[in-house]
Amino acid sequence: MTVAATTKMTFEDFLEYSDGTDALYELENGEIIPVSSESDINQRIAMFLVAYFLQIGISYNRLRMKAEIAVHSRQVNVRVPDLMVYSEELAIAMQGATRSLILLDMPPPLLVVEVVNPNQASRDYRYKLTEYAARGIAEYWIVDAIAQKVTVLEWVEGFYEERVYEGEQAIASPIFPNLQLTAAQVLQTC
Q1: pTM for this predicted structure
Q2: Residue 86 — very low, low, confident or very high, per pLDDT cuts 50/70/90?
Q3: Which residues pair with 34 in a beta bridge?
Q4: In a domain, 92, yes or no
Q5: Which of 46, 68, 95, 141 is placed for a possible disulfide with 113 were both Cys, Cβ 3.0 to 4.6 Å?
Q6: b vs e for 42-62, b when ≥16 Cβ sit within 10 Å of the residue's Cβ?
Q7: Residue 139 contacts residue 151 (beta carbons within 8 Å)
């Protein structure tokens, strides 16, 4: 669903926009798009990953769910991933921020995780992939409960190299070399 607008919204307009609720929106090519409510499965997968990352020693102040990130496309877009892992540098840059929005002049997060919504799979696999690569995000995970796979995209020289994990395959992560996690563990809540 797209909120009707007579003119395209600029990034600056988006920063000022409020509908008087706590609803989250993405900005895509000048249109604001409500962030849909997550399914129970999607929430469980995201929470499992948060708990796992805490367990392996990533500090809580570097983990964010449903934070905003400005990305490049034909114009500046804003995305709201399911989960992000900040670098130490980004965590410091975000201290004291009045809005959980990573601006273009800030360091990118180390990892962005999108849990695929069935009706919006092309956005995660196609559009966001291009935008996150342009933003220089080191790793992008697409967790697809329907297809029962975890796609790990590693940013190499401006493009993502893709590896797909299913079942008991151990997920290899360049930014978390000690990761001991399988696709089945991530998808266990399905």
Answers
A1: 0.85
A2: very high
A3: 25
A4: yes
A5: 141
A6: bebbbebbbeebeeeebeeeb
A7: no
